[in-house]
Specification:
Largest sheet: 7 strands, mixed
CATH architecture of the largest domain: Sandwich
Strand content: 35-45%
Shape: elongated
Number of domains: 2
Strand order of the largest sheet: 9-18-17-11-12-13-14
Helix content: under 10%
Oligomer: single chain
Length: about 240
């Protein structure tokens, strides 16, 4: 299964194991893997060497850490990394580059038309950046619905932040009033730039049905009116392990 990488973001990936090309078992721990050895194919294009000038560094048992820079991850879609070194069997690894978050350890910079994928049973932590100044906000709403025309009370997820600090948090879950408001939150990370973090605990995402074709938006409510800051499609994907504690 391909690993997801955030578009235009530097990351270090672990690849391997590199093993001896004679017996196919013995780890190769002393390989010198340079920039020229690390070949990338972006979205089916021709292989070229990585843009990052650093080579790979051995970790243990034939596994190597490979740094990728913002140019290496600047193309949305499939990304294949292939490395061939004399004395070792070739190693390749597939990634998907995009702008979505599927777990508690990933973040997403959402723009118009982006897709938010929620992993059922995982803590949702989504960082949305560049939404614009929030200085005059009275309330911020993050809402996911099956149909755009559904009432807010029928939302699959609705989380609100009030400037007053009163009556906010998780308001709606699975079309019902959420029993515990503090399970969900919107945190403002940068008021001027409009950077926010949306969270929902694993116990609540575990109650969601696996479904695609959902809709989400983020709205800013001010004394002057309502402005939609961003919107797009959303989906909930199934988990395998169901434990949440």
């Amino acid at each position: 299964m391909a690993q997801w990488l955030r578009q235009s973001t530097a990351v270090t990936v672990k690849t391997g194991p590199f093993v001896d090309d004679t017996d196919g078992v013995t780890p190769e721990t002393l390989l010198i893997i340079t920039q020229a050895d690390i070949r990338l194919s972006k979205n089916g294009g021709n292989f070229t060497q990585t843009n990052n000038i650093a080579g790979a560094t051995h970790d243990e048992n034939g596994y190597y850490d490979v740094p990728l820079d913002i140019t290496d991850t600047n193309t949305k879609g499939a990304l294949r990394m292939a490395i061939s070194k004399s004395g070792a069997l070739p190693v390749w690894q597939d990634f998907m580059v995009g702008m979505l978050s599927v777990s508690a350890t990933s973040v997403i910079a959402v723009v118009e038309g982006s897709v938010i994928t929620i992993q059922r049973g995982d803590t949702l932590t989504a960082v949305l950046t560049g939404l614009g100044s929030l200085i005059d906000y009275v309330s911020l709403d993050f809402t996911i619905k099956s149909n755009r025309g559904d009432a807010d009370t029928a939302a699959i997820i609705r989380i609100r932040k009030n400037a007053s600090g009163i009556g906010d948090g998780l308001l709606t879950l699975n079309g019902m009033t959420a029993p515990t408001a503090i399970d969900g939150s919107i945190t403002i990370d940068d008021l001027a730039l409009g950077n926010i973090t949306i969270t929902l605990i694993a116990a609540d995402t575990a109650t969601l049905s696996v479904v695609s074709g959902l809709y989400y938006d983020v709205q800013r409510i001010t004394a002057a009116g309502v402005i939609t800051l961003t919107s797009g499609a959303a989906s909930v994907v199934g988990d395998v392990t169901r434990a949440v504690v």
